[in-house]
Amino acid sequence: MTKLLLTVTLFLTPFVYGQYCLTGGPSSPDDSNIESVTLFGDGGGITYTGCPGITGVEQYTSQSVILGAGSNYNISIQFGTCGGNFGGAGEAWIDYNQNGIFESSESIGVWAGTPPTALSVFNFTVPSTAMMGPTKMRVNQQENGNVPLDPCAGYTWGSSTDFIIDIQGGIDCTGYTGDDFADARPVSTYPFSENYSNAVCYTSQNTVYNSPDVYYLLTAFSSLSSLEISTCGSAFDTFLTVTDSEGNPIAINDDSPNCGPQSEITIETAGHDSLYVIVEGWNSQLGDYTLNIGQGELSVQSIDELKFSLFPNPATSSVFFEGAQGGMVTLIDSRGEIVKTIDVSNKQEIDLSDLASGMYVFKIQTESSVSVKKLLIK
């Protein structure tokens, strides 16, 4: 069963080596630690010395190495200690598809033992489908850990270090538009239909899920009273987000009653001269999808249901909801977690005193529509 999540982190932020998790790693510099990493390729090289230990995720950027897509290499890692000898585990990953996530399929070697142990030498092949250009390799050691490790985990003793890998001869993503708001794929003729894929050259910029997402910019739809946006017929479980020209989410859909795990949204165009459509997969799913955009059919009742107001906004201890009719309200925090669910009438005060300050998504869902607004709680 799929889950419906929405986060408010839909802002234009610089892309620097993807959305890598950087808050994990060890909280203590003592004991278990990577002592050395050595990797030579087709140019450059990495010769890293780990002790003394460093807390958090270390960014080792003073050296980099060039690797060729489809070629074999050896990496030598000394999983060890900067203090006492305690058992644990180690693992290394290379983000071949450059989506900002160290996936299990990108692991290049694992280790388990108690230092001192022999140098670990891992042989690995860079996939021929790896994306060309700079990416990251992460090497983790976790005291008391077990393989496979979570590359984003936080723990007390161990090591977590990122290195720069430059992949050559892989997939050239120069012509792949649509990775973010600034480079969205243009749509100005309707009906619009495209068979496309988010499997290569796309990253997770829209943080609803970890799946790579593709952005579309819709313009020149003034002759259409509403738009129907659909991914029915896609090869994987899709998720759709529609935002206004400022990137504020105004509609979302996970599962469609017409095509199961694929998504559909019908939205009125009044008040908008442009819209963004974001296609991604549920969880981390990716692959081939079909996007169709054309004239939609919204009844007067449905249009009224899509309109509601919140005041005051920003709010403190409570907020007033007013809409054409009630529905199920869900409040979602900036981490994408549901913090409050409540049935509301067409006009109602909602208690917020149990919620922390911050940005939230206020989502109201009826039998025929879903609509969202940002809500700031001071």
Question: In short, what is this structure?
Answer:
This protein is mainly beta. Helices cover 2% and strands 48% of the residues.
Distance between the termini: 35 Å
Shape: globular
Largest sheet: 10 strands, mixed
Helix content: under 10%
> Would you state the CATH class of the largest domain?
Mainly Beta
**What's the rounded overall pLDDT mean?**
87
- Proportion of residues in extended strands: over 45%
Q: How would you portray this structure in words?
A:
It is built from 1 helix and 26 strands. The protein is mainly beta. The chain folds into 3 domains: 25-168, Sandwich (Immunoglobulin-like); 181-298, Jelly Rolls (Sandwich); 306-377, Immunoglobulin-like (Sandwich). Strands 1, 2, 3, 4, 5, 6, 7, 8, 9 and 10 form a 10-stranded mixed sheet that branches. Mean pLDDT is 87; it is low at 1-18 and 298-305.
List keywords for this structure.
378 residues; mainly beta; Immunoglobulin-like; Jelly Rolls; 3 domains; ten-stranded mixed sheet; disordered N terminus
Strand-helix topology:
Layout: E1 25-28, E2 32-40, E3 43-49, E4 58-68, E5 72-81, E6 88-94, E7 107-113, E8 120-125, E9 133-143, E10 154-168, E11 185-187, E12 192-197, E13 214-219, E14 226-230, E15 238-243, E16 249-253, E17 264-268, E18 274-281, E19 288-295, H1 300-305, E20 308-311, E21 318-323, E22 327-332, E23 338-344, E24 347-351, E25 358-365, E26 370-377
